[in-house]
Design a protein that fits this description.
single chain; alpha/beta; Spore Coat Polysaccharide Biosynthesis Protein SpsA, Chain A; 9-stranded mixed beta sheet; 11 strands; globular
């Protein structure tokens, strides 16, 4: 299983840090040159991005971020490996990452489309109650609701091919297309969450204002895009309450995905 790191050509310092982080856990990666959204012309953006009524407009950086992930999907789809792993270039790595990313993929459940390996502290996600036990007390749970973030995930070759076909033109940010049932194909994907996570964004891990934080380089995110944003406040709150009740009725559990940070490399 190859790992791919998305990195802007102007961000050589971030590439150096990612190289050190991977080396510290005995792993390597292939760099994918990111699409710089700031340099996209209005025509180039209009060719791939079609706004949706009632949804916030994507920023040029978000469009570039999406196109950058598509470059990774193209690499995964072109290889013989059944899975590939995608990272953005502001991630910290757990010292346990080599247990799962070093080559052997037999731990990935049969038929899995996506395995989310990123921790996002403080934001719980809905997971199926049944979990798969992995080495060193790691677990896998089926995602049963929306989960933010595309900083680190494993993608099957067949799913990469499918995503490439349906996102030649897109209307939502990359994590919404993959994980948000209201925006993408999430309901038809078999997506798992690993917990604790093998990677985490520096801005999530380090205290606010720390010099160790890498600001997100690929995208300046606007308001999360839900097609139903034009609904009234009361309708939105009612739907949220209904979804919570539905999750509890189905015995899904809300889980905060922590970071397996033991031995996390200290930044210089």
């Amino acid at each position: 299983m190859r790992s791919y790191v998305i990195n802007l050509d102007r961000s050589s310092d971030r590439l150096m840090r990612m190289t050190d982080r991977f080396a510290s856990v005995g792993l390597s990666f292939e760099r994918i040159s990111a699409v710089d959204g700031r340099l996209l012309s209005p025509t180039e953006i209009a060719d791939v991005y079609k706004p949706v009524f009632g949804a916030a407009t994507m920023t040029p950086e978000e469009v570039g971020c999406f196109l950058s992930h598509r470059r990774c999907w193209e690499r995964i789809a072109s290889e013989a490996d059944p899975y590939g792993c995608v990272f953005e270039d502001d991630m910290l790595m757990s010292r346990h990452a080599d247990l799962f990313l070093g080559g052997d993929t037999t731990w990935i459940p049969a038929g899995a489309d996506i395995v989310k390996i990123e921790a996002i502290a403080g934001r719980g996600v809905w997971l199926d109650r049944a979990v798969k036990l992995l080495p060193r007390d790691f677990k896998l749970g089926l995602l049963r609701g929306f989960a933010f973030g595309s900083g680190g995930y494993i993608l099957s070759r067949s799913t990469a091919e499918r995503l490439l076909l349906i996102t030649r033109v897109f209307s939502d940010a990359v994590d919404h297309v993959k994980f948000n049932p209201e925006c993408g194909i999430a309901d038809s994907l078999k997506s798992y969450q690993m917990f604790p996570g093998l990677c985490i964004q520096t801005q999530v891990f380090y205290p606010k204002g720390s010099s160790l934080v890498d600001a997100p380089a690929l995208a300046t995110h606007s308001v999360p895009r839900f097609p139903g944003r034009s609904r009234s406040w009361l309708v939105q709150k009612s739907l949220q309450a209904f979804r919570r009740m539905s999750h509890k009725f189905r015995r899904h559990r809300r889980t905060v995905i922590l970071f397996a940070n033991e031995g996390c490399p200290v930044e210089p």
